[in-house]
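User: Structure please.
Assistant: Input sequence and predicted structure:
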Amino acid sequence: MKKTLKAILPEGFKANGISCGLKKSGKLDLALIYSQFPALASAKFTTNSIIAAPLVVCKEHLKSAKRFQAVLVNSGNANCFTGKSGIKDAQATAGYLAQELKIAKHSVLVNSTGIIGKRLDVAKIKQGIPELVLGLSSSGIHKAKTAIMTTDTFAKEVSLSLKIGAKPVHLCGIAKGAGMIAPNMATMLCFIMTDAAITQAALDKATGAAVDKSFNRISVDGCMSTNDTVLVLANAAAGNRVISGGADLQNFSRCLESICLDLAKMVVTDAEGATKFIQIDVCQAKHMQEAKAVGLSIANSVLFKAAVFGQNQNFGRVAAAVGASGCKIKEEQLKIRLGSLKGKQVRLSVCLSRGKAKCTVYTCDLTPEYIKINAAYN
């Protein structure tokens, strides 16, 4: 496995990003990822019962089509809580792009991120699509990764390659997210492109495992978004033997998990107002689900997160969060070790003395700056 913290598109993919006027600042706000070859897609979405219109459209397209060629993403507007009009708007943008690219409408997947509750300005997107398509290139991913950002302070990107047989296979991932991040998907978008030839079943299995071990183990503020999406596209342009199981799938899955975990950690590092990255290691649990529940209970404790910001070694807040997780633990079983709070990296170890299972969760401190950012976000 060879990895670089830069976005390098795999074979057959192009991208671009432009400003179409959705953001008053004039910054890039419309991104396109395009595969020259029809690709398989695997996706995971937020578990929030209130979901954004583009997710409704994505789910419809994923059910009705087997291959996909384009992902259209806008920032500056979440197109959520906009009713039937929002769904029509998302469908319209997919249609305009499909017409410009001369591909089937159902081969277009759409995503949005930004403010909830405001109607999407479809006219601006329609007007920008010709420019967006015209500028597609292999280097356009650098504009695309910027165009999907909202309160992010840096673009999240990573690429890696592996060999399946004698053929090199490449993966590239970009993500956005800094706030409204909670487990079971976090407001977070992630797009991963690969030129691997792989079966749908194998891609779904690898995607599910990678998301569970990465994006579902981070929390910034415990607030679940309405737009969360992780989307993996595989266009088979590498020409490798088809990955269906065995060692090939294990190697591919390991690489996909590595990309997702790197991007998830970047999201936590870039958390709104955060000054510290916190790693919570829970061990000796009865089972992994228990370890994960304990870790996330601590990660979502505003008292613990505030204490870390204040460099306050308050073990009671950790103990209280463990008990609140539902774990039936006795006081004498619980062992807590909290590292130094002076640096930017903080490590907490929690031993439950109940079994052999373990889980690692990632979070950040809670600061006055987080409140300042979100008090003004509208």
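The chain has two domains: 2-269, 277-375.
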